[in-house]
Amino acid sequence: MGPGKILSGIKDVTERVLMTSAQFVVDGPVDIRWYGRKIFHMLMSHDEFDRLLVKYLNENTRKNIKEILDTIRVKGPGDVPTESARNTRKSVRNVDSISRSAGSSMNSLGLNTRTASGGFNDRNDSGLPPQPPIKISQTSGITQLRMDSQAQEYIRTLCTQLRNPDFRERIEAIEKFQVLCETQTDLVIANIVQLFDKFNPCLTDSNSKANYKALNTMCQIAPILGDNLNSVIANVVPLVAQNLASKNSEIQDMAANILDVFVDYLGIFKCEKKIIWKFF
Fold first, then answer.
1. CA-to-CA distance for 209 and 215, rounded, in angstroms?
2. Secondary structure class of 119 (helix, strand, coil)
3. Alpha helical stretches, state H, 146-266
4. Going from the N-terminus, what domains does the chain have, and what CATH number goes with each?
5. Is the whole model's pTM more than 0.85, yes or no?
6. How far apart are CA 222 and CA 227, in angstroms?
């Protein structure tokens, strides 16, 4: 995919690439900024580049990147960042701790756990809704997921809480969402679009605590959900990328870590990375 396809004017492609690239060049780790400059350097060869920049980026964004674009036009994207430069970014990711954090999260929230027989413990000291049961049946060799009314109600309640005006309620809902991903992955996959429609705004939450919690959760659940995120990843990536320009260093670092996790665990993101970053 070259500049002609990316700047074809198809909103879902052109707008996302331009907005994400603009976030990349403004802030974040040096390697992310370099990728942003390289993308813009390639796109500048397109006759409609300046017009589409005005069409899809707001005035403030264009002002913020104007000097950067002027420099790219004269000097190009610059040298590839060295390994030592990349290592200056603090690493706050540890995906190997997911299984350990799952247990601690469940204990702290008082949510149910699976019994040895595969069922669910009804114990719930926290008063939170019990974990919804999942029923699996085999029909013509195809696994089908059936949710009873209890599971459906749990999903609806969780979605509502994710958009609660109180940031403390949103943080609690984010914690529940992470535990659900860790303990009942099939249920999350079956409702992934509905759940992420309510979870996505938390990735750019106006409250820094809720914002960081959502990013941390995204970092933890990406390896669990893997390629099942394909149906929602196009909306998630631009939201995560916005945090690369955050003035909060912890939020900025976590956003960069999430992109690293996406590359490591998501096959479709590897493909999109080739399309967006390696098409030149």
1. 10
2. coil
3. 149-162, 167-183, 185-190, 192-199, 208-225, 233-242, 249-265
4. 3-86 (no CATH), 95-277 (1.25.10.10)
5. no
6. 9
**Which residue in the block uniquely carries the two structure tokens 């813009």?**
40
Retrieve residue 50's tokens. 């300046």
Distance CA 218, CA 54 (A): 32
Question: pLDDT tens per residue, the chain (280 residues)?
Answer: 455 656 665 556 678 778 888 888 876 667 778 878 888 888 888 888 898 889 888 888 899 899 999 999 998 888 876 655 555 554 444 444 444 444 444 444 444 444 333 334 443 443 444 444 444 444 433 333 445 788 888 999 999 999 999 999 999 999 999 999 999 999 999 999 999 999 999 999 999 999 999 999 999 999 999 888 888 887 888 888 888 778 898 998 898 888 878 777 665 444 444 444 433 3
Name the residue among 219, 204, 203 with its Cα closest to residue 264.
219
- Taking the C-alpha atoms of residue 151 and residue 237, their distance in angstroms, rounded to an integer, is 29
- Amino acid (1-letter code) at residue 58: N
